[in-house]
Design a protein that fits this description.
Number of helices: 18
Radius of gyration: 23 Å
Structural class: alpha+beta
Distance between the termini: 33 Å
Strand content: 15-25%
């Protein structure tokens, strides 16, 4: 199936790219075919974010449209203006409000909105289809297609359907399809499997800092109407993640009130933490018991749960964005601003700029659309594969670059020196130097390699859940709507050259941290009797596609691949 532009991923950056491409087609009276494929069962079903939304980029994308009113009308989802914005430092039982005036300006939320990003993506998907974009949910890109020399991308192939656990076709077998394109935009989100392959094949990370990640864990609650504080925004540091002034566990929490009666609550922990006994999910449950948090949830009902990794490396870790035949956008590239605690606005803007660069590339020098070529008896394979080199230039001259440049060294300051020095450095950068320090703090260590041996720590004992405010993992997992066809090849694969790690390293040296960091209970070690060495069991059907295992596993021994299209979580209000 040939297209002029293929977009892999139906998140904010991919949908923004598709809309901008069709806008350019209308402005120039050119008809390019644009296709978006999405591995989730529908647009928005794999989208998870906080989300306090900076509307700058969407206002640039849809300048003449009241997107807030249309979002409510079409998706019954409110964009609630921020009315109250507080930042707290927590101890186990108390809290201390940090004065607004000393917070970095990028942390101020005046003019922002509390939204469901999944619902916003559904709205953008509808907009894109109205403009002529072809959108195919339930299609998981499993393979990047290259030219013969493997110097350029020709498109992607989707995963076969109906293959049983042993690798044999079932009665329901359907061959995956090859989707060819003049340009392919990869908008898979953080740690996308195709995007990671492209970075290796084309050396896109050469000279860049090592990317570092956070794991976000989130619940959505319905609360009684009398408890709603529409537009209330709260972020915290300190308890439960930071216990000492030089604690190197990076992260914090968020709690937002959205109309009509929703609370979005979550915890983000940097995956460069050292203690293998940390259980991010249980730290999140522990945080909810704090008196200043519990009061927002009491009397309410938890209706949704999920998790997703996010990029935290910032500007220094963004790879080369383009290659022959395609580019990386959004969190596939890593445009999240961890100081601002936002990435949706930069994702949307990067999609717009990629669309402009790709449009120029496809049409320059008289290049015509695939449809025009087919009229002349030619196909997509006859097209010249080029590189949208102006994309990087557009990024560097945009507000994305200036925003990320100001805080380019801040995450590494936390990683090197710990909690309090990291805060001081962030204040210095945000208020005074604005990123103009005459040095660059490069991150050189994979998150998997920061985990220290278990004998350096004591096991952490967590309180059992009460079933009212705190929940056991499997109960919460049901709220994610996660489903995979049971009889299919496992999409979580132990790398052949690293099979010894789960056998002789992970449990023995690190006390099997994958049993704790996975927010879906996918990994466990089981032995049939006391004399038998515990063996790794992978419960792939639980996977919420957070990608944490591909990052934090000892030695990165897991290769995360896509399952059959349509599998995974089914988020509705995330």
């Amino acid at each position: 199936m040939p297209f002029d532009v293929l977009i892999v991923g139906g998140g904010p950056s991919g949908l923004a790219a598709s809309i901008r491409l069709k806008q350019l087609c209308q402005e120039t009276n050119v008809d390019l075919s644009v296709c978006v494929i999405e591995k989730g069962s529908e647009i928005g079903s794999h989208i998870l974010s906080g989300n306090v939304f900076d509307a700058k980029a969407i206002s640039e994308l849809l300048p003449s449209i009241d997107w807030k009113s249309e979002l409510l009308e079409q998706q019954s989802s409110h964009a609630t203006p921020v009315t109250s914005d507080e930042f707290l430092f927590l101890t186990e039982n108390k809290s201390y409000r940090i004065p607004h005036m000393i917070l970095p300006k990028q942390l101020h939320n005046d003019g922002n909105y509390v939204i469901s990003l999944g619902q916003l993506c559904r709205y953008l998907g509808t907009k894109a289809e109205e403009m002529g974009v072809e959108i195919y949910p339930g299609f998981a890109a499993s393979e990047v297609l290259y030219n013969v020399e493997k110097t350029a991308v020709k498109g992607v192939a989707t995963r076969d359907m109906g293959i049983d656990k042993s690798g044999k076709p079932k009665d329901t077998f359907e061959r995956g399809v090859e989707l060819h394109a003049r340009q392919t935009i990869f908008a898979e989100g953080a740690r996308g499997s195709c995007s990671e392959e492209l970075m290796k094949v084309f050396g896109l990370r050469a000279g860049r800092s090592e990317q570092t990640y956070g794991l976000g864990i989130k619940e959505v609650w319905e609360i009684p109407p009398e408890k709603v504080k529409a537009g209330f925004v709260q972020h915290t540091l300190g308890y439960p993640l930071q216990k000492t002034w030089n604690d190197k566990t990076f992260g914090g929490t968020f709690l937002y009130h959205q109309e009509p009666n929703l609370v979005h609550a979550g915890l983000v922990i940097g995956l460069d933490y050292e203690n293998p006994y940390i259980n991010p999910y249980k730290e999140f449950q522990r945080w909810k018991e704090h008196p200043d948090i519990r009061t927002h949830l009491e009397g309410g009902t938890c209706i949704s749960y999920g998790a997703r990794v996010l990029n935290e490396g910032g500007l220094n870790a963004i790879p080369k964005l383009t290659f022959q035949g395609g580019c990386l956008v959004g969190c596939s590239a890593g445009f999240l601003n961890s100081v601002k605690i936002k990435g949706s606005h930069t994702a949307i803007k990067s999609g717009q700029l990629a669309a402009e660069a790709v449009f120029e590339t496809v049409l320059k020098d008289g290049h015509r659309s695939v449809a025009d070529m087919e009229e002349d008896g030619k196909g997509q394979d006859d097209a010249i594969i080029t590189e949208a080199v102006t994309f990087e230039e557009k990024i560097k001259s945009s507000w994305i670059y200036s925003e990320l440049y100001e805080v380019r060294n801040t995450h590494e300051a936390f990683a090197r020196w710990g909690f309090l020095p990291g805060l001081f450095y962030t204040g210095l950068a945000a208020h005074i130097t604005k990123g103009k320090e005459p040095w660059t703090l490069k991150h050189t260590t994979r998150d998997a390699d920061t985990t220290q041996e278990a004998n350096n720590f004591e096991p952490i004992h967590y309180k059992p859940p009460d079933g009212v405010i705190t929940f056991d993992l499997l109960t919460n997992l049901q709220r994610s709507g996660t489903y995979h066809e049971d009889d299919q090849v496992c999409h979580l694969k132990v790398k052949q050259e690293l099979h010894h790690i789960p056998e002789t390293v992970s449990m023995q040296k690190y006390a099997a941290p994958e049993q704790r960091f996975c927010p879906a209970g996918v990994y466990e070690y089981i032995s049939e009797n006391e004399s038998e060495q515990p063996k790794l069991v992978i419960n792939a059907q639980n996977c919420v596609h957070c990608k944490c295992c591909s990052i934090k596993m000892p030695g990165e021994y897991i290769h995360w691949t896509v399952p059959e299209g349509g599998g995974g979580p089914n988020y509705q209000v995330m």
